[in-house]
Specification:
Helix Hairpins, 532 residues
Length: 532
């Protein structure tokens, strides 16, 4: 257990205050933890590249490799392997001297290595010492790779952050472990919240001993509300304030891209916890090549599919930080059973076609043997969910039954939207991400701007424009537009034709066609000469 000293300001959940001070972008230290339980899913990939992205923004960043037995983040960031365990240092001021320089400007590495042959997570004393030392380190941002497992070491380090990010892959074992990690985090946070009250803590331990190991948080909160109302109130508060983010790595098919939102929806229903989807990272050989080159992907190949996905996720993480303060002020409430509209995730004024599409979409989310429901629902429970979806579909498509249902459920009978919690958060994240990206792009544009394929892509993305929209308007094929952004000149016609493409693209993006064409083609000729 962490000693009972006053918790640092960035260690939430210690005493359940009404609100916690959260460092906003550009205003002091921010702490990010990356976990998820299962090893090999890409936690290191996300940690290294999030830290790299922050450092590229001019922030002073410390990357913490807290994997107790397999610390290896020194390889992709170009640092020497740690000669000693920094968390064993006696004096806290020594930690500054244990931070290793890396090949990424502004990024330093702290390795929580252990002695060879040691197993398990960080011991309580080591963990408490490292957390205490990190409180005093001179840095703007701290990114913690908590390592694999659901032990107290990984869970405590995950909770010791402003933003916790779960990483998984579209495989049943990884998804099951992710849900188990969330459940372990909730119970651990609940015990920490009661640490100062030994009587209530013993009461909680007694009740937990009577329930299944790692019970579902929403069921635990309901049980505590019945048998011990004071404990139930604390459990409900934590239920409302617990909000990890999730990234799905190594996606290959379209349904994999939908998985973050689907998992968020299923977790909200079964666990009672809101998990915000940050997006997905496509399976990409560029990740393997960057590992071979011992460089972060955002340095080795930022324009790759996975690189663009990681950059998009990093922007969304930063865009959502201001929301965290409001999340911690959310009133405690145990979620109730959804009505027909909430079950289909449609507004009350939805048309018949919207009802049909929503029903079909929700049947995919709750498919038998589907990935999103792994380990959380039995086949009988899935069948019951299908029956409830069918009932919602039938009622809302029958005008008399729908009117009667609306009157019985909504006394005011006013049409109001019922957005999906996952979609609402993702839409907020996308809007905030676009604002941040627009600000970054605005700083890069000027009379002397050299237009590259990557910059043209960032300008397009900052304005929320899809390549298909440009292709439809300009009559330039989407393949050629993608090749321009990727600087894949072997997939483009001769440069004289590319000049015409650039003029039309610049007009669509409201840029200076002459400057875009001149600077891009000059760069294209130089790259073609270098490539022979």
């Amino acid at each position: 257990m962490v000693p009972s000293e006053p918790p640092p300001s960035w260690l939430p959940g210690e005493s359940i205050p009404p609100s916690l001070p959260i460092d906003l972008p550009g205003h002091g230290r921010r702490v990010f933890s990356i976990g998820g339980g299962k090893g090999g899913v890409g936690k290191s990939l996300v940690s290294v590249n999030l830290a790299t992205y922050l450092a590229q923004l001019g922030r002073r960043v410390v990357l913490v490799d807290a994997d107790p037995t397999g610390a290896n983040l020194h390889l992709p960031v170009g640092a020497e392997r740690a000669a000693m365990n920094p968390v064993l240092a006696e004096e806290e001021h020594k930690l500054e001297h244990q931070l290793q320089l890396t090949e990424v400007p502004g990024l330093r590495l702290l390795t929580a290595a252990v002695d060879p042959g040691d197993t398990g997570g960080l011991k309580s004393a080591r963990k408490a010492r490292m957390i205490a030392q990190l409180r005093n380190v001179q840095a703007d941002d701290i990114v913690i790779d908590v390592g694999p497992g659901t032990g107290t070491s990984a869970v405590d380090l995950f909770l010791a952050a402003d933003v916790g990010i779960l990483v998984t892959i579209p495989e049943p074992a990884a998804i099951e472990t992710t849900y188990r990690f969330v459940r372990a985090c909730y119970i651990r946070d609940l015990r920490r919240a009661l640490r100062a009250d030994r009587t209530r803590l013993r009461g909680l331990d007694r009740i937990l001993g009577e329930l299944p190991h790692h019970p579902y948080p929403i069921e635990l909160a309901r049980h505590l509300s019945r048998v011990e109302p004071t404990l139930g109130e604390v459990a409900a508060q934590l239920l409302a304030r617990t909000r990890p983010r999730i990234v799905v790595n190594q996606t290959r098919v379209k349904s994999d891209l939908e998985l973050p939102g689907w998992m968020a929806q299923v977790a909200a229903r079964r666990l009672g916890i809101a998990i915000d989807p940050l997006g997905a990272i496509e399976h990409d050989d560029a990740v393997w090549l960057a590992a071979r080159h011992r460089k972060p992907l955002l340095v080795d190949n930022p324009s790759s599919k996975a690189g663009r996905g990681l950059e998009r996720i990093a922007r969304r993480v930063l865009a959502l930080i201001p929301h965290r303060a409001r999340e911690l002020e959310a009133p405690g409430a145990i979620p109730r059973s959804p009505n027909h509209y909430e079950r289909l995730l449609i507004p009350r004024g939805a048309s018949e076609e919207e009802v049909r599409r929503a029903h079909k979409r929700q049947r995919e989310v709750w498919a038998e043997n589907g990935l999103a429901t792994v380990s959380l629902f039995t086949p009988d429970e899935i069948a019951r969910e299908h029956a409830l979806l069918d009932e919602a579909h039938d009622v809302l498509l029958d005008p008399p039954r729908r009117r009667a249902y609306d009157v019985s459920v909504f006394p005011d009978h006013e049409a109001a939207p019922v957005p999906s919690p996952a979609n609402r958060v993702l839409n907020d994240a996308i809007a905030a991400e676009l604002r941040e990206l627009q600000a970054q792009v605005a700083r890069e544009l000027g009379p002397d701007t050299e237009f590259t394929g990557m910059l043209l892509r960032r300008i397009r993305e900052s304005r929320g424009i899809d390549i298909r929209e440009i292709a439809l308007k300009t009559k330039i094929s989407g393949q050629h537009l993608s090749a321009i952004e990727d600087e894949a000149f072997d997939q483009l016609p001769p440069l004289v034709y590319v000049r015409g493409f650039l003029v039309e693209l610049a007009k669509f993006l409201r840029l200076d066609p002459a400057q875009v064409g001149r600077t891009y083609l000059r760069r294209a000729k130089e790259l073609l000469e270098l490539r022979g």
